[in-house]
Design a protein that fits this description.
The protein is an alpha+beta fold. The chain folds into 2 domains: 2-98, no CATH class; 101-140. It is built from 2 helices and 4 strands; from the N terminus they run ββββαα. It has helices at 56-97, 101-136; strands spanning 8-13, 16-23, 32-40, 45-48. Strands 1-2-3-4 form a 4-stranded antiparallel β-sheet, covered by helices on one side. The protein starts with 7 loop residues before the first strand and ends with a helix.
Length: 140
Amino acid sequence: MAGDLPDYYFRIRDNGATAFRLDHENRNRRIEMEEIATINLRNGSIKPHGDRVLTAEDLARITEWIAARSDLLARREIDDIHRAVDQMNLTAQWVQTRATDAALDEVTDPLLLAMHDLRAALVRRKADRLTRDKADQGQC
């Protein structure tokens, strides 16, 4: 089992993680987790734990984890949007086929406001992209 364990472990927390170095080859045959740093994904900061000085290997592994975690979170965010599109389609089907008047009274205004807000944001961003693309092509 010890041979299969990584040398570092990252405990996920809000906006980052706590990094641990694992020692699984000690004389007690126990897995020791030594806290080495706190990572903030929002601003990219890496703060060594206590008076610790991080080694080049520590920094390399933490930087690799930050890149992999950021990529994973970006992929999850896009997947969530695709799920929202699916949910909107299912909601339209529900409204058309199964919704009661009482259920519609409960959800119509919040849905309409959310859809109006989303539409406005999408139209504004698309217009910005089109304007920027024309400017980049020298057509503005």
